[in-house]
Design goal:
This protein is α+β, with helices and mostly antiparallel strands and about 475 residues long. Helix content is about 25%, strand content about 25%. The strands form 4 sheets. Strands 5, 6, 7, 8, 9, 10, 11, 12 and 15 form a 9-stranded mixed sheet that branches. Strands 2-3-1-4 form a 4-stranded antiparallel sheet. A 4-stranded antiparallel sheet has the order 13-14-16-17.
């Protein structure tokens, strides 16, 4: 690996002459593969070494063929870099009661799915991504993960400024110079420059300034990057504490994990994952608490305005409004815990416990997914949506089911037509693989119409000679 000379000099100065050679040597080694099983969907055992700082994480002995594993598409696990799983340690140590949490820079969804699993029951996660195409990937991954207590938004950080004191926890995994990705991304190496580092630390401070008002007094800010330099790491943490008014908090760790502390001589705790010391990629994290200053909670004016989606067209030319079909309620395990509403022709179920926050965000932000999309109304039919098949709130007994072979599952995920056994009833059928829901078809007898989302399909038309799956 040909590292930029300026990066070598700066990092050698940061780490010291003794550590730097081991660091540079580690950048030439293979990246470890790690996953997090989704235990709300699948209890099958996984062979591998546990990630020490994240009980839900597992290092795999080799890299499976993820694209051709149906359980990957079913949301039974997420492929995530091990160092970034340290966020789980923070949440389990500091968050003991239900909260409203924002993951600000969330795509593609690794930390969002981790947060959703680590947060206490009854919490709400808002996952945001500013880039439109990446926000769609984020929504896909969170739909597959299956929790209904999620909202996905596509907004600039400045759009959160007026949501005064709404969030108990904010994770800012801010865009950075990407030095921690050098080992697996040559583009990150090629694009690195001191000028880009300067652009990044200044942009990070603008992002933090924009979202700071939306964090409650006493709330937690989790600040993270995937880079090594002090400007984007320790110097920014010191700036947050000094300029925004925050207390830097410690996280309990074990010495054998190999996590490195503050490298700038500052007296505050930070957590660095260096590839020559920890089994993972480069990662930096700090936890800060916003000082309680007696400010008011979220102004009531934000909570009382009706959401745009609830406003109805008036006048004699208005069409007869649609209503939520009765059978939609039967498709949920605990239907009384949800409000069922219409968003156009889509039936959406959202947890009643967070209805006010949902209404607020519907006014202020661009919401691209929330709760569970139960189905789409077409004429007199309610067509079950893939979001429902993926949800842990699905009442699976509401639909006839058909278990697929591996070959059938791959054909379904390619959005090919299927022919089900003759004893499978006609109508909407829930397909499963190893007893895990994969999605819906409409069985018409001689064939089954595939309802898998077109944009999510496996595009590859071949199968590898050797298939290696996680479970």
């Amino acid at each position: 690996m040909n590292l930029p000379q300026a990066f070598i000099e700066r990092t050698r100065q940061l780490l010291g002459e003794e550590q730097y050679p081991a660091f540079q040597e580690a950048l030439a080694t293979e990246v470890p593969v790690s996953i997090r099983p989704n235990r709300k969907k699948c209890d099958l055992p996984v062979e591998g070494e546990a990630v020490q700082w994240a009980p839900s994480g597992v290092y795999l002995k080799s890299r499976p063929t993820f694209t051709f594993d149906p359980l990957f598409h079913a949301g039974c696990y997420y492929v995530q870099e091990a160092s970034s799983m340290f966020v789980e340690r923070v949440l389990r140590e500091y968050v003991k009661e239900p909260v409203v949490m924002l993951d600000l820079c969330a795509a593609p969804g690794g930390k969002s799915t981790l947060c959703r699993s680590a947060l206490p029951e009854g919490s709400l996660l808002v996952a945001n991504e500013v880039m439109r195409n990446r926000s769609q990937i984020l929504a896909e991954n969170l739909v597959k993960w299956g929790s209904p207590e999620v909202i996905v938004t596509n907004n600039d950080p400045a759009d959160f400024t007026d949501l005064t004191h709404l969030f108990d926890v904010i994770l800012t995994d801010v865009p950075c110079s990407g030095e921690g990705m050098f080992r697996k991304d040559q583009v990150a190496v090629d694009e690195w420059s001191i000028e880009n580092v300067d652009i990044c630390w200044q942009r990070q401070r603008r992002i933090l300034t924009d979202i700071w008002p939306s964090l409650k007094p006493g709330g937690l800010l989790i600040y993270s990057t995937c880079t090594f330099n002090r400007e984007e790491d320790e110097d920014n943490v010191a700036w947050i504490a000094r300029e925004l008014g925050a207390e830097v908090l410690p996280v309990s760790i074990e010495e054998e994990w190999g996590i490195t502390g503050n490298l700038t001589g500052g007296g505050f705790p930070v957590y660095r994952f260096l590839p020559h010391k920890t089994k993972g990629e480069g990662f930096f994290l700090a936890v800060l608490r916003k000082r309680a200053d007696g400010c008011d909670e979220t102004p009531s004016r934000f909570l009382k305005t009706p959401s745009r989606m609830d406003k109805k067209k008036k006048g004699k030319d208005a069409k007869q409004p649609l209503s939520v079909p009765r059978e939609a309620k039967d498709w949920l395990k605990e239907a009384d815990a949800f409000n069922l509403t219409l968003n156009g022709t889509s039936v959406v179920a959202f947890p009643k416990a967070h209805a006010e926050v949902y209404a607020l965000l519907g006014q202020q932000l661009k919401v691209i997914h929330a709760g569970i999309t139960l189905g789409e109304i077409k004429g007199k039919d309610l067509i079950p949506h893939h979001s429902l098949a993926m949800s842990t709130a699905l009442a699976s007994e509401a639909f006839p089911q058909a278990e697929l072979t591996y070959e059938q599952a791959i054909a379904y995920l390619r959005k090919e037509g299927l022919v089900l056994d003759a004893d499978v009833p006609r109508g909407y059928v829930l397909l499963t693989y190893r007893q895990v829901p994969l999605g819906f078809v409409k069985n018409i007898g001689n064939r089954a119409n595939n309802l898998y989302p077109q944009e999510w399909r496996i595009r590859s038309g071949y199968l590898p000679e050797e298939i290696v799956c996680v479970f």
